[in-house]
Amino acid sequence: MYNCSNQLRAFVSLRTTTADHTCCFTKRQLVSPKDVLPGLSQLATYNYLNVVPHWSTCGTENWDEVESRVRQLVKSLNMTIEVWTRSSQTLKATGATTKYLSDQYNEQPISPYIWKVLYNFENDEALAIIQINKPGLKLADAVKYVPCKDICNRIEWMRNPNWYIMSKGFIICCSLEDFQTAFG
């Protein structure tokens, strides 16, 4: 399923190739093993239910940075922050059915959005952080996939000039209200 050569052949047949023909999907844990206690809970992060296809070989830096910043924020605050992580919707080729990564054992839909929602119950504050997980996307096309007004620059700990660099992974931030409107 996560064999890059097989994926590239499938992309060519679907006419959805990447510019350099080297990028592909890899496994990505929605809940990172770095964010749970060692032992069984850490092992559970490798379960199929916690893994999504992530356009990774050409752009994980920004999502890795998001996870690092969230980790640092939680450590620096002396309060509980609840973090929800998911993927949403299903990526479709123009005029085609849902795209899946598959092998002889499993089939997994590819979600165009991977997101984290951070909620501070004490202050009743929330933030949604979203990565667009679509192959071969150019910046001009990425803005068509932005589901809400980007507010990353309004949040001090989330300011980063690299969020819009496609090769690092396109990241936006939304208010919880905008996020709920976009994703339900």
The pLDDT mean sits at 81
Physical arrangement of strands within the biggest beta sheet: 3-6-7-8
Spatial gap, N to C terminus: 30 Å
Number of strands: 8
Q: Which stretches of 5+ consecutive residues score pLDDT under 50? A: 91-97
Q: Secondary-structure element order, as H and E?
A: HEHEHEEEEEHEH
Q: What class, by secondary structure content?
A: alpha+beta
Count of DSSP helices? 5
Q: How many distinct folded domains?
A: 1
Strand fraction equals 15-25%
Folded structure, characterized:
It is a single chain. It is built from five helices and eight strands. It is of the alpha+beta class. The protein has one domain (4-183). Strands 3-6-7-8 form a four-stranded antiparallel beta sheet. Strands 1-2 form a two-stranded antiparallel ribbon. The protein has a two-stranded antiparallel ribbon with strand order 4-5. β6 and β7 (125-132) form a beta hairpin. The longest helix has 16 residues, at 61-76. Residues 42-146 form the DNA/RNA non-specific endonuclease/pyrophosphatase/phosphodiesterase domain. Keywords: Endonuclease, Hydrolase, Nuclease. Pfam families: Endonuclease_NS (PF01223).
